[in-house]
Amino acid sequence: MFLRQLLICILLLISGARSIRDAALQVPGAIIAGNPLIMWCRFDLEGEALYCVKWYKDNSEFYRYCPWSSPTPTTYNVAGVEVDIVHSNESMVTLVRSDVRTEGTYSCEVSTEGPAYKTVLLESDVVTYVMPSGGPVIDGLRKRYDLGDTINVTCRSAPSKPPPRLKWYVNSKRAPSKLTGKTQVSSNPMTDGMGVQAVGLNLKMPITSEDLRNKIIKLQCVSTIYKNLSEKYDEIMYHPYLNRTLLPDPEGPRINGEELLNIYDKARTSVEWNCTTKVHDANEAYLEWTVNDEEATRNMTVHLSIARTGRQKTYTSRLRMTLEEKFVTSMRLKVRCTVVYSQPIQFVSEETIFTAASTSFHIMKISEASRMTIAPTFLTVVIIGLVVSHIGNH
Ligand SMILES: *[C@@H]1O[C@H](CO)[C@@H](O)[C@H](O)[C@H]1NC(C)=O
Ligand SMILES: *[C@@H]1O[C@H](CO)[C@@H](O)[C@H](O)[C@H]1NC(C)=O
Ligand SMILES: *[C@@H]1O[C@H](CO)[C@@H](O)[C@H](O)[C@H]1NC(C)=O
Ligand SMILES: *[C@@H]1O[C@H](CO)[C@@H](O)[C@H](O)[C@H]1NC(C)=O
Ligand SMILES: *[C@@H]1O[C@H](CO)[C@@H](O)[C@H](O)[C@H]1NC(C)=O
Ligand SMILES: *[C@@H]1O[C@H](CO)[C@@H](O)[C@H](O)[C@H]1NC(C)=O
To answer: Where are the transmembrane segments (predicted)?
Structure first.
């Protein structure tokens, strides 16, 4: 036992001597296609001479800065990576513009000259979002509908990544799902493989005497792209009580109920937890439960509710399950609630208004499509200490 500890100590000393202090890779976790991309590779050589800084995307080198070999850095062709030489140096790299192909895993490798030959390799992912070129469009409109006719129209989004979620609004109210259905939108082989996709949603609405009484039919379609901001989780584990395993993050989710539980007494009984998280009014959250690293499904029920208070929304997801014998006998139970926080970005179609004249409806006006609305947020996420992910707009 003592020998093993000693060995670990020696190994730590060796690896400690070889690593570079305070090394950190700072890249935006997400970017919008078209924008430049700035990435920092920070390090403290503690007085030693730099040998090289090498940058890779998905393991392909695209930039190399070796002060000893030549005063100018070398760049290599990698799809979607166009280095701005003037605005790049030993500590950072600027890409002129980004596109879908810019998405991937970036790494920087820093090494020092002999005799120490220290080296460090840091890695971080970049996700590209492609915004649609404009708002969604409404197809299949007729100028006139009579009582008993069916309005049969399709809302089509422009290609984007990720593809948006579409919603129909009739007279400013969300159209019931029984009136809507997904439709195929012609694909573009150039971009489909890269996750850029257009989607369509059909609306089939019979014109009833109630519409005639209301005298107006107002149609609008909204497409929403969800930009993920961060991911956080809370977890409880059996050891030897069912207890929290980490300090709850005040900004993150929190599991309540059945804390400090001795599951030994609870075999075959029903247990329940709530996972609660607060988000800014303009943002949304996606909550997911896992039990022993598997998605909560069979024999477990999940119920989600959202409450609004002022500028905040509180999401509560309830997990109810029967504590099966196997959890108790194996003494292995880990319950985790993971939340992905996202920012919805909305694009709105033209608003089409029909007004009633005796027993028919005529197009009255088609207003302009609204510009996209982006809720202002600025968020910095720290992932595993070393890698700083940085997402923001405006
Ligand atoms: C690299 O360029 C950035 C931005 O112009 C600058 O802030 C930084 O100090 C430069 N680093 C070095 C080592 O020259
Ligand atoms: C609705 O329109 C689509 C094409 O736009 C057509 O394929 C479909 O048959 C129409 N449905 C009805 C009920 O008219
Ligand atoms: C955002 O998070 C959701 C929920 O985990 C996930 O399904 C989706 O793929 C994520 N989107 C991106 C672009 O990473
Ligand atoms: C369980 O959590 C409490 C605080 O909620 C803490 O004081 C206690 O040490 C934890 N017990 C174990 C076994 O982790
Ligand atoms: C979970 O929340 C619901 C209401 O949202 C409450 O009725 C229930 O008692 C809560 N359960 C636990 C275990 O806290
Ligand atoms: C669900 O629970 C019941 C007892 O509550 C058990 O008999 C059954 O095997 C469980 N099913 C699954 C799929 O675990």
So the answer is: 374-392
